[in-house]
Amino acid sequence: MITEFTVTAGEQPKRLDIFLANHQRDISRSALQRLIELGRIRINEQTVRASQKIKPGDKITMDVPKPEPLALKGEAIPLEVLFEDASLLVLNKPSGIVVHPAPGNWTGTLVNALLHHFETSGGTVSAIGGKERPGLVHRLDKETSGVMVIAKTDQAHRHLAAQFKEHTITRVYEALIWGVPKKGHGVIELAIGRDTKERKKISTRTTSPRESATEYKVDQRYGKVAAHVLLYPRTGRTHQLRVHLTSLGHPILGDPTYGGRKVCAIEEIEIPRVMLHARTLGFTHPTTGERQEFTRPFPADMEAVSQAFEQIRSAKIAKEP
Q1: DSSP string over 103-159
Q2: What total of structural domains would you count in the chain?
Q3: Domain's final residue, options 12, 29, 63
Q4: Among residues 17, 58, 141, 255, which one is catalytic?
């Protein structure tokens, strides 16, 4: 479908993608950026970048294609569903599963599991995220476990995405970290982005820094060896919690990317994966307007590691004179 309109007088100069996101509520900003990259959105019949500044009098042409059927296949992968209705689904993601298909992981993902779930239950799923990310409003890293919300309709997707953007979502994570912070409570603030030398890492060594902030609170100390912390992200950058805790000098246990080998085996305790869990997720339901909150405690593997550290701590205390 082709849509044309002209930028009106008095409109302040701003990026094309931002301008369109404010005027085309039915399409997410990321989807608009993809359309711009494909040349389906033009200014004065010219192909431009998403960062192109608009000005009064510019003629914008949008050629939005009809949604294509999903090419991905559903797979019978078990899901721990915490809540589901016609608008959304809330689940507890296990560690070890990739959220969406990508090179090297075209099958066995959470999306494949969701497609099978909706195929067998007769439900729908939002297509705003594209063919590879249907229903995904946010994501968790492969090794991170915890609560996620999935949009089943485009209206629910837009409503939930707006809450994430406006930081009105309640999010609480918990992690087991190397060592113990000197301060029991604090806020970590850093401008981070894709690392200039190691493209798979996020760091302060970047050409595209974005402000990020995480509040942390030490919940339990295991002597001087490790600690259990609660994390309250105020922004949602890629790898934010992992980078922030490393900057504090206390990387997450089991995270060799940011903590090195030292955090993968401590006191003869083998750490099976990155010890990070999305404990609580709260939001306003896009249809009912009610505030909902879902919490899942430590998974078994993190509980086993924490108990092992507690036993070591107790044994050391018992030996003290």
Answers
A1: TTBSSSSHHHHHHHHHHHHT-----TT-SSSTTBSS---TT-EEEEEEESSHHHHHH
A2: 3
A3: 63
A4: 141
